[in-house]
Every structure is written in structure tokens, then in C-alpha cells.
Specification:
By secondary structure, the chain is an alpha/beta fold. It has 10 helices and 10 strands. The strands form 2 sheets. A 7-stranded parallel β-sheet has the order 6-5-4-7-8-9-10, with helices on both faces.
Length: 352
Amino acid sequence: MTIEGRQTLLPRDPRRPDHRYAFLHRVVRTFTPVYIGKPARLVNCAAVPFHARPPDRRRLIFGVPRIDKCPIEVLTERPAARPRAAKADDAYDPSDRLRAPPGEAVGILDAKVAVVTGGASGIGRAVALRCAAEGASVVVADVQDAAAVVDAARAQRQQIDCRRVDVAASAEVAALMRDVCARHGRLDVLVCAAGISGGTGLTADYPEPDFDQVIGINLKGVFLAMKHAIPQMLHGGGGAIVNIASIAGLIGLRGTPAYAAAKGGVIQLTKVAAVEYAERNVRVNCICPGMIDTPMVQRLPASAQEGFVARQPLSRLGTPDEIAAAAVFLAGPASAFTTGAALVVDGGYTAL
């Protein structure tokens, strides 16, 4: 490691009774990393105030008869990074993101552990990939095969694992949360994106089995995920939960009695949990997407899609990546003062 700098002796200042601290104030004004010379060791005076240092560090700096005899080195060059050991065939290593060179941007969710339900396709897939791109270790839980999502992440040297889980089965969801914490040591982020449309029909004509299935996956699935994830988050000191609701839970959409009821329930469940666990550092928010270009929407008749788009100010379908960006915001530190919110991302549809 090469260090360039110079040694200076600070004169005693008789006008200041706290002359021992005079050099600290000068150093802070320089905004330059500072190291105390021998026998003291590495100390960044500009970053760590005197009162915040542990007692042993204070003695190390000030444990000399006269501060004006203590040499100080002002560095003009950042210490060189420690060389990395070569890996065979440039193998994937999840810890690579923790070895970013000095000055390289750190992901919003760097070193976090996230579970994304319904992450095999649609919005859930986009959220899982975005969380991984932001530095999180992601576990995708879905009844569908999520191998394609895992391969896409690994191709970008990102970490995603997958588990086959039925979100409507309490035992499977509980086992998922326990296994994630056993493997990664904690759970920081939960995104509930699993859901089905359940078909359309007027309320009086809607099949009861279909209604039960939609409620079981879209609403009960969110409840079970939170029920089993929150204790793990509390054990780790807190976390963030993002539920994918819908504008169908905010307005009346003809022919969607089960879907609208489930998404409205998700919004209220979000608010209740946010109030219950705010003091314990668990934030709970939800997103209410409009018409998003996902496989679920693509199965609708073209006339239905065109009619929906024609009514909204931004005359296009939303993209899963736009919802994923909102999810990462709500899961990250930028939304630290946000809980119990229902963030609408609908191209202005509900503003009319």
C-alpha cells in the first residue's frame, strides 16, 4: 500500500483551553482522511467525532503529554484495494457484490435477503430480477417453474434461488420462511406478487369455487406470507413488506367480484399490519398497478385492453419493470418514512 503525505506539528494554542482538540477542528475543515502517526494507528478524524469514539481509541489519540508533539500524516491518496485471488473459470460467487472497488455504486438492497412470491412470471419476475440487480439475495416462491428467472439472474452474476411453494398452504409458506432464515440468517424484504385473475362474470353468476380460489391465492396467500415472515423479520430487527394489490381494489370494475374483493382486502390488510408493526421497525406497503403488460393481461381480448388504455391519460400499458422499480423503492431505505401506503401506478387511470 502506497501512502503519500507529509508530517506536521501543530502548535499549542494558548487561547484555547481545549487546545488538545485544535487539530481536530482543522482536520475536519480540510475534509481529508487523516491518520495519527505512531504510536497511534488508523483513525479517520474527519468521519468520527471525538465524543463518538470508544474510550480506548480516545486514549490512543490523546494519551501523550503534549498534543503539539504528536505527528499527523495527511493522506493525499486513497489506500490501494487489496488484490483478489483468481477463481477458476470466473465462477459465480455471491460475495462478489460485497467486494466492489472503492467508489463503485452500491445497490439499494445490497446484502439484503428478499423473498418474492409469484416470482416466476409477470410482475413477480420483474421484481425478483430487480431486487437481485440491486444486490439482494432473492428467493422466488412459486408453483410455476422459476428456472428461467434463476438462469437470467445468474447470467448477470446475481443471486436468485427458487422454491416450489403454494402460497395458499400455510405449512408450505411457514417452511419457506424458516428455510430462508436458516440458510441466509435473516429475512429483510418480502414481496407478495402471487396472484391469479380468476376469470370474469357478474356477481350473481360468478362460480363459488372460482371465488374461493381467487380469495385463497390473492388474499389468503398474502396473509399467510406476512403471518410467517413477520416473526422472522422481528427476530432480525425489522424489515419491509411490499404487497402487490391492484386499482381493482380501489374502484369498481365490472365482472371482477372475486379479484376486486381480494385486492381490496390486500390494501386493508397492508394498512392493518403497518399500524401493528410500525413501532417494531417493520414497514408494510402495497402497490396498486393499473393495466400492466403481463401474461395475465395478455390473455384478455384485445378489445378489452384497447378500451382500458383509451381511458387513461398515459395511453399505453404499463411494464412490469415500472412496478418493480416502485417495489424496490418501497423495500429500500429511500422510503424509510413510508408505511401503510397504497402506491398507485396506473398511468393516471384513477385520476379521472
